[in-house]
User: Which sequence fits this backbone?
């Protein structure tokens, strides 16, 4: 299988925040943002693998800034690292300033998707070759995040998470 670059998987969703999608403070409801990010991540995972993909885990979400009603929200999802059958997807969320058009970073998240066959069984995905400095940083840190996610899910013993442990002992 031929390796791919992160830019080959990029998925960008731009949409408005409408009244039915907000909390009592008139900011975007967290669950709505999670769903939008899941959709964008799913497209990125599919573009990388060209397979059916399922969400295996939401590894990290930071709701750093509220997103007000009426905002134009852009969600950019890209595969940051692949393993055997799983893919880490890094998601950046931007709000566009109405007057200047400048996009400011509002939130980010990291999801894990798994490619599966028609019966739902995990199937191998192409490798990934990071190109930019940011892509390389995200690629390098992804193994620690995978180990943390597996430890928290009870699928890996903490003493087997060698890269993760090294973070605390270096
Ligand atoms: C995700 C799923 C396919 C994993 O199946 P599984 O039987 O656990 O298969 P495996 O143990 O071989 O795991 C497959 C890959 O997922 C990874 N994985 C599984 N759980 C994970 C987690 N919590 N965090 C990170 N990676 C995880 C494994 O490490 C493995 O990666 P690798 O092959 O790249 O090394 C299966 O649990 C599933 O179908 N879940 C439901 C998915 C779904 O419906 N999502 C929508 C939610 S409504």
Assistant:
């Amino acid at each position: 299988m031929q390796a791919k670059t992160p830019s080959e998987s990029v998925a960008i969703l731009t949409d408005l925040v409408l009244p039915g999608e907000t909390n009592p403070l008139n900011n975007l409801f967290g669950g709505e943002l999670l769903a939008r990010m899941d959709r964008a991540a799913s497209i990125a995972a599919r573009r990388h693998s060209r397979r059916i993909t399922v969400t295996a885990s939401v590894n990290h979400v930071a709701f750093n800034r509220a997103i007000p009603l009426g905002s134009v929200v852009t969600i950019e999802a890209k595969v940051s690292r692949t393993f055997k059958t799983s893919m880490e997807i890094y998601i950046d969320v931007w709000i566009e300033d109405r007057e200047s058009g400048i996009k400011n970073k509002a939130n980010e998240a990291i999801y894990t998707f798994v490619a599966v066959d028609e019966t739902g069984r995990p199937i191998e995905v192409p490798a990934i070759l990071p190109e930019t400095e940011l892509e390389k940083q995200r690629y390098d840190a992804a193994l620690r995040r995978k180990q943390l996610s597996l430890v928290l899910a009870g699928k890996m013993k903490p003493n087997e998470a060698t890269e993760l442990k090294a973070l605390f002992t270096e």
User: Anything to note?
Assistant: The two ends are 36 Å apart (CA to CA). The first helix runs from residue 30 to 49. The chain is about 30% helix and 30% strand.
